Amino acid sequence: MEPQESEERNATLDRPWMPWTLRIPFLCSLAGFFLLFAIALEILRQVSERNHGLVIYKTIDEIPKVISGAYIYVPVSMSVLAVTLWQFFVGDALRLEPYFQLARLEGAPATVLFTNYNFSFGVMASVAAARNRHWLIFVISTLSIIFRIFLPSLLSGLVVLTETSVVQSRDVSSWPKLLDQDTQKKWFAAETIRYANTSAMSTTDEFFLSRSSDYATATVSMPLDENETSVLSTHQTVYWSELVCQNVSPKNITWVQQTTTNKETDHDSRNLTQWRATQIKFAAGEKDHPCTINFALNTTTPGQSGPLQLQYWEPLRAQSRLGEDSAFQTSHCESHALLGLLIDINDNHEDATKHSSNATAFVCNAIYRSAEAGLKFDVNASITEATVDFSSQRDLREAEFFHPGFYDLLYRKSRWPLSSRSQTQNDMMESPAKLAPAGLVANLDQEKWIDFLEYQNEIIGFWNNQFIIYLNKFFDANDPISMKASQVTVVVALDVLSKPAIMSEALLFAAATLLFLLAVVYSRRANFLQSDPGSIAAQCAIISKLFTTDNPLTQSSEKFSHATSRQLLRWARNFRCEWADSSGSKRINIVPLSPSMSNRVLELPVARRRTDPRPHFVILPLFLVECTLLTGTLVMYGFALSDLSLKDINNAQSNKQFVLMVFLLCGPTFISSLVSSLLASLVRHLAIIETWGRLQQGMAGIRQSLAKNYGSLLPISILFHNLCQGPLLLTAASILCTLGLVLTIVSGGMFEQQMKLYSQPATGLNAEYNGTMLDSPTADLQFDGVGLMMMSMNRGTPILPWQDATHSFLPLANTNLEANQDSNVNYAAVTVGIGASLRCHQVSFDQSSIENGSGKKSWNYTSPSGLACAVEAPNRAKSGLIKRSISYLEPIDVSAAKTGCQSTVFVLARWETMESSPINSQNSVALSCEPSIGADEFEVAFDQKGIILSSKPTTASAMHGGHTAHNLSLSTVTHFNRAILSTIGSYSPLENASFSHYDWPGMMTVHTYDGLYPSSQLSFHPSSLISATQSTYQQIFSAYLTFNRDLYFERYAESAAPSVEGTALTSLWGLFPSAVSIIIALVLLSLDILIVVFVFATRSSYFRAPRIPASLGSLIPWVAGSEMMADLRAMPLIGKYGSQGAWEQQDDRFYRFGLSPDLNGHKRWLLDYQHSGLQEVGSELTQVPIHDQSSSGQIVGSEAIASPNNSPWSFSGIIQRTVKSARWWAKRSPLPP
């Protein structure tokens, strides 16, 4: 067994030592980790590019807190992990390179003896490696700098929050089928009659059906989406009208004017003007004949002379169909649609006849067309973009659009009284529709005269707009089709930035490639190491075993012991290290580059300074610079915490803002990497200084000095070796340097992308209306809500200024709106909101339906308040099949006389039955509903257009039982019910039409029902129908009150409008400081500054020697000729660690570094066993007692071994010194008896 054990021991000794960080398993594993990391980044980048983001949220508020922190800190944490693992490899590669160079069989320049790349700060390692032509180290150190500083910085801004557009396929409903010509004819007739007979009317058509100023198209159901940025794209048929006009200047126009006086008042004279024009000819006519018109018209104006302008237009032949006289007599003008005339006269006198030369007549031909187009709808169903395929263009036939009825309606609307129009006009609505130009205007005020082209364009614009409105109205709302559409929505996404990702991948791939190559290289490099050379003892063992005793460094040890590192390096440039046989073994000898070199060249160069430059952290100028930089960083973070931000990222288009954004995302991590590098350099130097300072104090045990091994000198490595027992200052510094990893991580989230709401008092908000509701109008008002119904088909809840789904709010005027054009500014204030509520119950069918002698069906029911009321059941589609039907019915005259009945609403829903079939629970549901109106003060948030963003009742409202309660009377509800139900009766001629089973409130109710309770069944569930009816009634009432607010509330005069307190709200999405991250960074930076200051204060003169022995060559002159070196040479190689293992077992020896006289009486620096001849140098050495030693190096005296293994700055050393001080004070100050 003994020969086998001997062979195993020899094999162990022959196998060179290699740190685990330079072995194949670690290098390949680290390279594999980097490759996986890079692949993961590329996968994330590809997924983000293809899907417009990694994860998509509708709003920033939907992002979970975990995700909002993870996307910031996970990439930075992974980069810190990668950099830390990389630093383990780099630290050992840099510190061991000189030993690998010495191990080369061909030898190496002697400068490698004085090289230690691990102590080079920043780029100096790369510079030194390039100068020494150590290209492997040059590549490693250069890549290390880039890797350590830029990888965390790049990954800190890898994932950002951004707005992106997401395209989704949607199934939507559309109603593209037009009503038949007969239905259109009857509808036009009913509408024309309404305008002829109604003194006051309000319609939502002008607002809701003018979804485009250019085209009409079928209604499309917008997907339910709270995102106001959504755009829906479809392909549909669009319709439009074109008016082609001819203009002539007639010369034969005359007028005759007479003045009349009111006989009853004997004043108030009026001017009667008779206008005449004959033979006004236009080129285009019928059958090659010109269109010829004669004009005759009488006008009345106030009895005053002066300039006069006559404006007149009319649709062709509309008067004859309506039984009225036309001012035009035409010949061969059948193809034209309208005629018009504009006459200016400069003066007029009684009984005067004049010819005017300033007159223009025009005739226009209307062309109606359709084509296929790609359309884009915004969230309010308005057409934002239309791409028309003109190759599919065709003319619209009269069978598809009934022209004559359209002309009659336009004529009636142009003659509708101006007073009626002004009653229902609400300037808050900002309606895109055009008011009808009056058919006849005789204007005496010359300032109000209109230019001819402006007048003609006004008529053309009105004509085209009315065509769009009524064609939109004629799409059959009862015949939907399903179609595909694409929805583009601007959402918030976690997006991977391509450039940082690609650059990070390049770094990781470069590092992985290098690691794979180094795994091969280091496994084949020449190596003589048998243990880690990180300790002084290991280096002394290498010197004693591998270096010859007659080399210049040992022979001239007295001169070289006082030399600086620069002197030694300059001297070594003339020498090289070669392997030579010595005493039967290979040893390293230091020889001149050439034997012919003179002794003068080989002498030690003259020193420019007596000592090496001290480390940067104990040099006053550099210390001040470092403290200034750290303090500046501290101040910058504090300033960021209080003030700095990049607001509105989406508008950051300038280069300056982009650079600022990149700095805020990546800059803090870059700065923290520099701070960590600075502290790492401090810890590396401090580890060496602490060891040699302890030796300079004397009485140093081997385990606390020569055997102390900090490995690769990384802060984590030093902390691991030093935590249990070691200098307190070094432990604190290594802890703070390790915490620098935390600083790097939190720096990645120092500026977060957030949505912040800034508020400040708003100025210029005034109330427009008195909150006291007026009595209901005495005149009947018709409210046409077909446009409202069509809009409810589009998006469910129409968007109106100062209205939401349940309430109409009294608007507030903003007098500072023009001065503040920032579209991100919204407002919050308190205003009055008025809404309706509906109380409904199902009506039983037992003995409720009767048939009187006229054949009409009546319905007796009991209102929710207990009143007996009656309604007349609808009978519109004779003997027709009713698939689904909802009708709103008002009480008949007998029951309407009762005060409570006239405010009730009766709703009848039927399905899958014949009109003549009995009404029962199998095919019908009947509801009796009683509405009530309530007002309250609401705290509303609204944008600059008055769109309500949110609303909630105020906590202490004064409206309950307040000054409006007594005015919210039953008459208001009754007037409203009559206004909406009266329009239903005007469409009674529309029998047998597919939509005649619904009135427009009923159609709106069924769409609400289907939206709330999607189902393929045609039947209606009573409780669900009640919910849909209540929701619909609230929407209709709030829209009605919004359109007709002036009828119910008194508008303030502009000068008397009271001011309203409000708040201006600015929502900004940008980069804002993270308070938690910055506070952590401030604490860590403050501790870093404290440790730098403390190191400077306590270690400026802690170690005094010509040089800091950071390399193997600088140590040789200090140990050459020492007794311990002689002992080392006599020790056999025992165990895996060679002589160092045997040496560390000698705990009874103590060591000191200082000046010692040689045989010639010269003082030299020497590291040896403790001798009385050594002179301590340093501020603290005078406190260490010197004891006699025997020749064997043993220290005598009882106090000499009181604390042989404790450093004065270790934990145990501090405790022992505290106990000694307490005993000394107890002796000096005895307690009184």
Shape: elongated
Structural class: alpha+beta
Number of helices: 32
Q: How many discrete structural domains?
A: 4
Q: What is the first-to-last residue Cα distance?
A: 75 Å
Cα gyration radius (Å): 49 Å
Strand content: 25-35%
Number of strands: 38
**Uncertain runs:** 1-13, 418-433, 648-653, 957-967, 988-997, 1133-1140, 1176-1212, 1224-1233
Mean pLDDT: 77
Largest sheet: 10 strands, antiparallel
How much helix, percentage-wise, in residues?
25-40%
Quaternary state of this entry equals: single chain
Secondary-structure blueprint of this entry?
Elements: H1 2-14, H2 24-51, E1 55-57, H3 65-102, E2 108-109, H4 124-132, H5 135-156, E3 159-174, H6 181-197, E4 201-203, H7 205-208, E5 216-217, E6 231-248, E7 253-262, E8 267-282, E9 291-302, E10 308-315, H8 318-322, E11 328-331, E12 338-345, E13 353-355, E14 359-377, E15 383-395, H9 403-414, H10 418-424, E16 440-443, H11 452-473, E17 481-496, H12 498-524, H13 536-546, H14 552-555, H15 557-561, H16 565-572, E18 575-582, E19 585-592, H17 599-602, H18 620-642, H19 655-697, E20 700-701, H20 715-722, H21 728-748, E21 751-762, E22 765-767, E23 769-773, E24 782-784, H22 786-795, E25 807-809, E26 812-814, E27 825-842, E28 849-851, E29 857-862, E30 868-872, E31 881-889, H23 893-896, E32 905-914, E33 924-942, E34 948-953, H24 970-985, H25 1000-1012, H26 1022-1043, H27 1045-1048, E35 1049-1051, E36 1062-1073, H28 1075-1099, H29 1112-1119, H30 1123-1130, H31 1138-1143, E37 1150-1157, E38 1163-1169, H32 1211-1228
Transmembrane segments: 20-45, 66-89, 109-128, 135-161, 501-522, 617-640, 660-683, 728-751, 1068-1097
Pfam families: DUF3433 (PF11915)
InterPro entries: DUF3433
